[in-house]
């Protein structure tokens, strides 16, 4: 291999990132959906661009960030959302709703199909059934739901979200929304007058009254259904506390003055233009909106633009690719016994870490929070911290082991994060008890670094055992250096796990009034601390040597996973805000694999390939 | 609380010394440390899983705040000791730690971190013991405008008997739940009658006699209990449930041979107190949550519950209250909200919840004299581990450098 290989690897990796980032967001279309995707709105309590709403809703309902049609065409999230918002009849025909569970399909009288995506129009006959069954399931605690109940509950939630989206910016069924609101603004004076006369018991114009009240009721329903609040608090029509409001609410607010909000009017025209297939009008109105927003809501507009950029750059996705590349390079360096490839792997890992750090930092900037605020971000952070520790090990030992662990754990944690994102918004607002940056920055970060170190120790142990049992490469030197590394990493894990756990206790003392309550998540943390203490004492007492240390480090993987995920699956306790049960089989599988490795490690040493000949 | 007393050894024979030395050896051994830590892990793990079915409160008492974990093959039947409880393991670890350091302590800079860490652990364990022994948790529920100078226990009841003392004061006699649970006859000098606790129900449900199955017997002969049937139900285990205690009491005249005045059903669920006339006075009695009186009062001005706009996600809970302490001449506004409790006179008031359509607040009140121990422990252990880690890491790096550049 040439001496330039590290540089070649770096250039390849850099080109890959550039290609991903610079690729146009969508092929040139008549409708400028990118500009639409950047517009700021308020949803789930925070300002975000349409692009984020589109991606999150699609992930929740469809299970992925792009919609795939039966013929294989892919539809970008923004375009899908535009169809849902402005052109419901088209959106209703997309194979959107993902249904896996055979019993749910059976409830509809469908045999298990070879497909799992269904159109809204196909589900219409069963809406009532889904609603009743879903409500029944909702009454059951999430941890105690059967798989069928979970499936029907999710389906019901998806349908609710979908219907709310459809009525957020424009009524699902309308002949022309701009006309409708124009007529409404004209009908207000006469309608109000008729209403006043009716209340006094005088004769009134029934037709005018009914027209006005009918529209007002329609907008009220729309406002109640909306889950996107696109109208900013304009100076003259501020909400109760200067809050963003829905289109429906904004129309009702026009009643006293008869004047409809500027943004609401533009959105009505945007919707009509999209619905009627008039790109020039659509683009012109979107441009008007963008201008209006950057003049009147510069903060929200910039924030939305940054978030759009973040979605587009997808730094964690790119880092994932780089970790795979780095791992392949390490493998190459081992197989070819080539130091240069090892250096190349290290260089690519550094680049991956830069991208990973950029993503982490960008998220912190967008959220205005410390790095870990939910299970999703804990996975991203665990990967990040492990890569750093792994790179330090690599810098010291230069044998590819640190790099390999960093690459594998970096990749796996980002995959886990990707799957944890299926709940929707990963930048969600924080519950009241979590609304404290000091503790998020100290307790949560320290304890998560503790997890990282535990996983790194476990990964080192896997390398030790696999190399020792299945290859003859585990030399005396390798045994010594791996043992040192593992021991050092466990010391590091002890420090962070202990301090993190006690800081958590202090936080609990500050907010719940007790330092320690034997809550499952607290117990998970103390299990890690106890296990670290056992390993260290066993080593100091000489009860274990290299192999014992490795077996115990492997079990550390099991305990850390229990603490990180397992306790959340019990569905009890004060920390169960990060609940998920889809991962149960994966978690069980991982734990079993670790136990299997421990069993392999317990084979007598003469069965180990590396020690067979003395 | 169990009490352990160790007997001294006045006459010291060589055999005793040998045995003692052996005991000290075991007590200070690293093997014992590892054994206790391993047992603690099993206990914590099983105790976590047990919370799914038994509820956190029950598990805390049975597994962690006990010397022995008992297994009851039949509910209510005799127990079999199956595992050391949290208190026992904590105590042995503490003794082990102290004994080991007493025997093997030798000063050196390289061990400074270890010593600091272990000193911190001693503080932590002692702090936990003190918390278990002396801390008291209660709740203070306030509706807007309401003033209270007491907090209430969320788990334990008391039976209060009161009568008018003069125009302004009532004479109140409170009988704690622990005494009620023992059942039997209670006589007290402040009462002109005796009370027999015929039956105490840890958790109960009521049913009007009209709706009960035929042949059901009413719980009592007097008051609402005469029209009610009581059922004993298993203890509440879910986080958001609690036991509904009740008791059937009988009022007896002071002499041993007097005729019973009747039986009554008492429970927090019944609402208004019941009363009897005896010895020329009216006596009211009721079962209510046990109260802890304070030398100051809190008045709720407003409870505030903010949500993120357009969602149901809670953003903040806050109680605006007024604290009045005439003894210390304090009269001031206080704001209690998430992560910002009020600390006053050794007690801490936390925003815990709300009720009555989000207008009334629920504050958790904790008296914990050793609340600073974890802070101190965290600093000691954190510094110790950090010192140890850095000391060895730097040493290791230096050695490697020497090796690689001869």
Number of strands of chain A: 6
Rounded mean pLDDT score of chain A = 88
The rounded distance between the terminal residues' Cα atoms of chain B is: 65 Å
Helix content of chain A: 55-70%
**Which assembly state applies to the chains in this document?**
heterodimer
Strand order of the largest sheet of chain A: 1-2
SSE layout and pairing:
The complex is a heterodimer of chains A (614) and B (406).
Chain A: H1 5-22, H2 33-38, E1 40-43, E2 46-49, H3 50-62, E3 67-68, E4 74-75, H4 77-86, H5 88-91, E5 97-98, H6 102-107, E6 117-118, H7 120-123, H8 127-138, H9 147-166, H10 177-200, H11 206-225, H12 247-253, H13 262-275, H14 279-296, H15 298-313, H16 315-335, H17 339-367, H18 375-397, H19 401-420, H20 437-470, H21 476-511, H22 520-540, H23 546-569, H24 584-601
Antiparallel strand pairs in A: 1-2, 3-4, 5-6
Chain B: H1 14-27, H2 30-54, H3 56-64, E1 68-71, E2 80-84, H4 86-104, H5 112-134, E3 136-142, E4 147-164, E5 170-176, H6 177-181, E6 184-187, E7 194-201, E8 204-208, E9 228-232, E10 246-252, E11 263-267, E12 274-278, E13 281-307, E14 314-325, E15 330-337, E16 342-344, E17 347-355, E18 360-367, H7 373-404
Helix pairs in contact in B: 2-3, 2-4, 4-5, 5-7
């Amino acid at each position: 291999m040439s001496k330039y290989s590290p540089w070649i690897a770096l250039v390849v990796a850099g080109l890959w990132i550039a290609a991903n980032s610079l690729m146009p967001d969508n092929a040139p279309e008549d409708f400028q959906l990118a500009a639409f995707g950047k517009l700021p709105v308020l949803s789930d309590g925070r300002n975000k661009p349409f692009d984020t709403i589109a991606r999150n809703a699609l992930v929740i309902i469809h299970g992925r960030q792009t919609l795939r049609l039966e013929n294989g065409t892919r539809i970008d999230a923004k375009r899908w959302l535009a169809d849902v918002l402005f052109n419901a009849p088209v959106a209703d025909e997309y194979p959107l709703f993902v249904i896996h569970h055979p019993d749910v399909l059976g409830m509809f009288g469908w045999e298990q199909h070879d497909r799992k995506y269904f159109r809204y129009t196909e589900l219409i006959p069963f809406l009532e059934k889904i609603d009743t069954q879903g409500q029944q399931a909702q009454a059951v605690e999430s941890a105690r739901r059967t798989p069928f109940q979970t499936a029907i509950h999710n389906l019901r939630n998806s349908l609710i979200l979908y219907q709310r989206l459809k009525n957020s910016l424009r009524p699902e069924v309308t002949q022309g929304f701009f006309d409708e609101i124009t007529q409404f603004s004209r009908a207000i004076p006469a309608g109000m007058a008729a209403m006043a006369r009716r209340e006094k018991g005088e004769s009134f114009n029934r037709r005018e009254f009914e027209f006005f009240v009918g529209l007002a009721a329609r907008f009220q329903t729309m406002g109640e259904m909306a889950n996107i609040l696109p109208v900013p608090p304009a100076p003259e029509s501020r909400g109760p506390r200067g809050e963003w409001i829905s289109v429906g609410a904004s129309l009702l607010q026009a009643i006293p003055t008869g004047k409809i909000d500027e943004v609401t009017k533009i959105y009505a025209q945007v919707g009509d233009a999209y619905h009627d297939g008039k790109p020039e009008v659509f683009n012109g109105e979107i441009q008007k909106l963008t201008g209006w927003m950057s003049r009147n809501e510069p903060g929200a507009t910039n924030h939305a633009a940054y978030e759009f950029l973040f979605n587009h750059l997808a730094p964690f996705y790119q880092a994932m690719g780089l970790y795979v590349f780095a791992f392949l390079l390490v493998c190459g360096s081992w197989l070819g016994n080539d130091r240069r490839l090892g250096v190349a792997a290290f260089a690519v890992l550094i680049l991956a870490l830069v991208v990973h750090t950029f993503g982490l930092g960008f998220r912190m900037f967008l959220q205005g929070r410390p790095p870990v605020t939910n299970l999703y971000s804990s996975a991203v952070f665990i990967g990040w911290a492990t890569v750093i520790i792994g790179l330090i090990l690599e810098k010291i030992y230069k044998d590819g082991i640190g790099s390999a662990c960093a690459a594998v754990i970096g990749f796996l944690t980002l995959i886990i994060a990707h799957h944890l994102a299926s709940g929707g918004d990963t930048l969600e607002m924080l519950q009241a008890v979590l609304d404290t940056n000091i503790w998020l920055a100290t307790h949560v970060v320290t304890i998560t670094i503790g997890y990282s170190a535990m996983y790194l120790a476990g990964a080192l142990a896997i390398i030790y055992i696999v190399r020792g049992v299945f290859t003859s490469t585990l030399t005396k030197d390798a045994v010594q250096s791996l043992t040192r590394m593992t021991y050092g990493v466990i010391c590091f894990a002890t420090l962070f796990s202990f301090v993190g756990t006690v800081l958590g206790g202090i936080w609990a003392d500050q907010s719940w009034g007790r330092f320690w309550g034997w809550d499952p998540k607290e117990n998970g943390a103390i299990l890690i601390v106890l296990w670290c203490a056992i390993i260290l004492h066993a080593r100091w007492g000489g009860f274990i040597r290299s192999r014992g240390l490795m077996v115990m480090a492997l079990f550390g993987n099991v305990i850390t996973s229990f603490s990180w995920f397992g306790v959340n699956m019990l569905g009890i306790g004060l920390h169960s805000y990060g609940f998920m049960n889809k991962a149960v089989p994966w978690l069980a599988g991982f734990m079993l694999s670790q136990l299997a490795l421990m069993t392999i490690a317990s084979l007598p040493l003469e069965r180990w390939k590396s020690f067979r000949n003395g | 609380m169990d009490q352990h007393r160790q007997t001294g050894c006045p006459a010291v024979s060589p055999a005793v010394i040998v045995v003692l030395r052996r005991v000290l050896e075991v007590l200070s051994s690293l093997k014992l440390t590892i054994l206790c830590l391993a047992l603690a892990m099993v206990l914590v793990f099983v105790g976590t899983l047990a919370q799914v079915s038994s509820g956190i409160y029950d598990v805390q008492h049975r597994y962690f705040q006990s010397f022995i974990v008992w297994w009851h093959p039949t509910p209510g039947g005799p127990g079999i000791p199956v595992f050391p409880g949290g208190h026992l393991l904590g105590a042995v670890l503490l003794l082990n730690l102290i004994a080991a350091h007493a025997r093997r302590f030798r000063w050196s800079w390289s061990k400074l971190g270890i010593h600091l860490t272990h000193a911190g652990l001693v503080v932590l364990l002692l702090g936990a013991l003190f918390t278990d022994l002396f801390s008291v948790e209660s709740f203070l529920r306030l509706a807007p405008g309401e003033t209270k100078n007491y907090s209430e226990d969320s788990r334990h009841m008391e039976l209060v008997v009161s009568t008018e003392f003069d125009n302004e004061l009532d004479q109140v006699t409170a009988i704690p739940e622990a005494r009620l649970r023992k059942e039997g006859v209670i006589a007290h000098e402040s009462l002109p009658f005796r009370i027999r606790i015929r039956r105490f129900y840890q958790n109960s449900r009521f049913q009007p006699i009209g709706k009960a199955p035929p042949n059901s017997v009413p719980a009592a002969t007097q008051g609402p209990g005469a029209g009610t049937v009581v059922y004993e139900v298993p203890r509440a285990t879910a986080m958001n449930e609690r036991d509904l205690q009740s008791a059937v009491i009988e009022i007896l005249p002071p002499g041993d041979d007097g005729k019973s005045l009747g039986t009554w059903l008492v429970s927090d669920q019944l609402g208004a107190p019941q009363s009897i006339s005896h010895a020329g006075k009216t006596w009211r009695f009721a079962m209510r949550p046990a109260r802890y009186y304070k030398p100051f009062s809190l008045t709720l001005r407003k409870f505030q519950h903010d949500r993120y706009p357009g969602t149901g996600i809670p953003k903040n809970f806050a109680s605006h209250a007024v604290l009045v302490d005439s003894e210390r001449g304090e009269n001031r506004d206080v704001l209690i909200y998430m992560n910002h409790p009020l600390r006053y006179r050794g007690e801490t008031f936390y925003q815990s919840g709300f009720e009555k359509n989000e207008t009334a607040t629920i504050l958790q009140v904790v008296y914990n004299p050793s609340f600073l121990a974890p802070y101190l422990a965290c600093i000691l252990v954190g510094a110790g581990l950090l010192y140890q880690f850095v000391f060895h890491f730097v040493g290791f790096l230096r050695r490697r450098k020497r090796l690689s550049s001869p």
